[in-house]
Amino acid sequence: MVFRIAPREDRAALLARLAADPRVRLAQPLQRFDTLAAPPATTPSAPAAPYNDPYFGLQRGFARIDAADAQQWTRGEGVRVALIDTGVDGGHPDLHGRIESRRNFVDADAAQFEADRHGTAVAGVIAADANNREGIVGVAPGARVLALKACWQGPQRGDGAQCNSFTLAQALTVAIESGARVINLSLGGPADPLLGQLASYALKRGVVVIGAVPPDGRTDGFPDGVPGVIAVDSAEHPSASGVLRAPGSEVLTLTPGGHYDFVSGSSLAAAHVSGAAALLLQVNPRLDPAAVRDLLVRTAAADGVINICAAVALLQPQGGCVAQNGTTAYGSAAP
After folding, report:
1. Could you report the per-residue pLDDT of 5-59, keeping only the tens digit for each?
2. Which of 53, 66, 69, 85 is catalytic?
3. Residue 246 forms beta bridges with which residues?
4. Among this protein's residues, is 101 annotated catalytic?
5. Residue 5 needs a FRET pair 20 to 30 A away by CA distance; which of 85, 94, 95, 126 works?
6. pTM, entire model
7. Rama region for 231: left / alpha / beta (φ>0; ψ in -120 to 50; rest)
8. Is 10 among the catalytic positions?
9. Cα–Cα nearest to 186, from 247, 126, 266, 123
10. Phi, psi (rounded to 5 degrees) for 213
11. Active site residue: 92, 94, 116, 118, which one?
12. Is 259 an annotated catalytic residue?
């Protein structure tokens, strides 16, 4: 339940009175959270590559985490990934058949849902279709996306998107009830008791929860401060210890209206790891969040960036992959 405080009412005093009522389990302020992506500064170039998706050769982040080799063994088929974000352009040709369901916890504006930029960009990194002669390839092109809009997008291209405790709580509840195996939270804000409880409940149920590290590098807010959440920062950003790293600079991805563009930020880094988690969960659906994180940490490159093919190889005794440095990794035994 959300209440508006009466004029001249002291919020802290009101919360204290509510918290003291034995009928009230939790009373807290409605807090704000921000998505963590930015528009492009430049347009990078890269060599062509073997998929028939025309922009695949520009996906430097995809190549850096060795996703193409991992897709020899798994594409995340059937793994549900809950994208708690802005809306998503479900009509984008590179998301055809990838959006399993959609819910809007912000408003009833269906047109704006399809026009939202941030969620569309994150969805593209996770699950853009492969070998459809369209655009790019997602890290887990077989994953099923639950598009849960809990954040509202600013009117201008450079604007961020904001969410609050109430909208995020509703989306987390639906993600858990819908059987998502991965929850992507490419956003950040203060520590939040209610959201922390919901994320902890998801983790106890075996859901892998991925969070993005904010620009200041702090990991004590929501979602990164919740024990068990996998905090992810951009590979190009100096990171605190204990966080995973993935590409987050000039990442080519989807934009509404069937378009493509380069986007930067830890939002995109988190999306790479959510896609990686979906690949691992197809190979071994019994993996819990700690096991997923351990696999990605153990097989990360020397600079700390995840190598999803090496992680998959540990689960595929007959599988192997060639890393960018020319070394070959072969699976041995599943953990």
Report:
1. 888 888 889 989 998 999 999 999 988 888 877 665 554 444 444 699 999 999 9
2. 85
3. 234
4. no
5. 85
6. 0.89
7. beta
8. no
9. 266
10. -80, 130
11. 118
12. no
